[in-house]
Amino acid sequence: MKKIFTSLLLLFLMAGFAAAEDFDFYVNFHRGGGNEKPENTLETFLWCWNLGVIPEGDVQYTKDGVPVMFHDSNINRMVWQVPEELKGKKIADFTWDEIRKFDVGSHRGPEYANQHIPTMESIFCAMANFPERLFYLDEKGLTEENLKQIAGRVHHYGIEKQMFFTSGSYDHILKWNEICPDGVGMLWLGYVWTKDKTANMDGLNAVLNRMRETNFKGVNHLVLHIQADFTKDDPFEPKSDFIRDLAKEMKDRGIPMECITWSNGQNPKVYTELMKLGVIGFATDFPSVVMPVVEEARKNK
Q: Domains (ranges, CATH) in the chain?
């Protein structure tokens, strides 16, 4: 399995992120470990790379300006045994020295108790001189000054084509392209949902049409958020025809498209059906479900 996915990542690099037809099926693990490993830790990212898949991580800034890897708006869920007086506090409320020893591993088991919040710098350092190590850096409301700092570190480590700047905001993708024109931009597409979890197609198409007007400037990669429900005639939201048409458009534009499902992600059928629609990659919270599906698909190709 490791050999299969390592070869796939090398294909990314040789292709130079140029054409969708150059890509095979690929996988990235949401927050690094999905639901199976501690989130956003260096140990988890190394585990991903050793499997030959792409981790996704979330960057936030501490009170004293250190960029660290952490997802949530406060520390309650991920920091083990949060003292009552710290509940509700955000990463930005702490200095790096205050949070560096927080236990963020024990939620996944006592064997992970020594895993802590890593700095962004440590992740970039682990990528330098390992061109097969790709990383999706998901921004959490960064400022332009933050982006400039991150771009500086990306250049310092020479990882312009390894670090995918990832955002749900097209404005932020354009800003990254302006600041780091030789970098890679990846748009999370799908934050537009109605209350009953059906896609707000007006909102979704508005974002797509805006990108079409700019010829998808700054977008080197696209991740479509979906819902899946096999009790319905058409199991997907957005609908299957929309996914098929968008996958073809992205292939024609040379922009790889993957999907992440927010429902029934533990069902392998979700991924096999998406492949039939032309989807070539997946972001997932269920690594052990997706990887065998993708490996089987590659064997049959």
A: 1-30+184-301 (3.40.50), 37-183 (3.20.20.190)
